[in-house]
Design a protein that fits this description.
single chain; alpha+beta; Alpha-Beta Plaits
């Protein structure tokens, strides 16, 4: 199993939920009102007057066979909406209870 952490502009909230549902990923945790700035030339998303955008993030524990499909869907979403980016990161899950 893998942990997939997806960080995205809040404009993508419904799209991310749709992607998870499409691949049968029902268990996840979501964080809203996240502040930050992307490492690929991203502008700050700070929820302020100057930088009004804000991010959300979702963490899903995913079966290995779904990881590549999920990453591909996030990449496609990011490429179609370059003004409001998205990134995904994967960690190995070595144990759970």
């Amino acid at each position: 199993m893998k942990a997939v952490f997806i960080i995205y502009n809040q404009a993508h909230n419904e799209k991310v939920e749709f992607i998870l549902d499409s691949y049968g990923i029902s268990g996840y945790s979501e964080w809203n009102n996240m502040k930050g700035r992307g490492s690929r030339g991203g502008v700050p998303h700070l929820g302020t007057h100057t930088w009004p955008e804000i991010n959300s993030a979702t963490l899903a524990i995913v079966d290995d066979d779904k990881v590549d499909k999920l990453l591909s869907a996030v990449k496609k979403m990011d490429e179609l909406n370059t003004d409001v980016g998205a990134r995904a990161f994967v960690w190995e899950i070595t144990a759970s209870v």
